[in-house]
User: Fold this.
Amino acid sequence: MPASIKYIRTAEELDSVFSSSYDHPNIVLKHSMSCGISAHILQQLTGSINYEINVIVVQTERELSDLVADMTGHRHQSPQIFVLADGKPIYHATHYGIDANAVNLKLGVAHLTRGEILMTEPVQIIEESDREVSIKWSDDTETKYSAARLRRSCPCASCVNEWTGEKILEDSRIKDDISFSSISIVGRYALNFQFSDGHDTGIFSFKYLQQLPG
Assistant:
């Protein structure tokens, strides 16, 4: 049975794809209507994957394409595919590196390892100061984070090697007095922090934040 195609045309639809990945894995494909490689990859995927593929056409939805880059930490390319689970990529590839078998494998692993525990969400976010934030969670716990701690723990691709998971950022490069410029919620699954050094590309999932010491 071939894959089903769903075209993503609004930020709300994209947000829903990321949010629902906490319940089941989702595929996002950036597709170019004028690229022969992209057409070939789309045809290959639709013939090999029995799953819904969320397609963003880069010519008509460039803002959404850029938003995906911000949310995943992977710079824009086309064709480009993501398998999302728990609000973050568990598989990423571009051009002829896109492998339908690898996508199927990641989908299967995500389904097998997914538990039935409901995601714990923030119920209150308190900016104690421009250098400290406190989060009260739905399980009645509370965690305080300093801006320096979060900046040094940024999970984006420029701070962590996207292939090995090895941390690239050196803690010593981040000043202890760094502060928050702004804090925003990303859908129902993550927070984004903009720091006083200008860095703002990290998407901190609720799950990731709970695993961080304050």
Summary: The mean pLDDT is 89. Residues 77 and 94 are 7 Å apart (CA to CA).
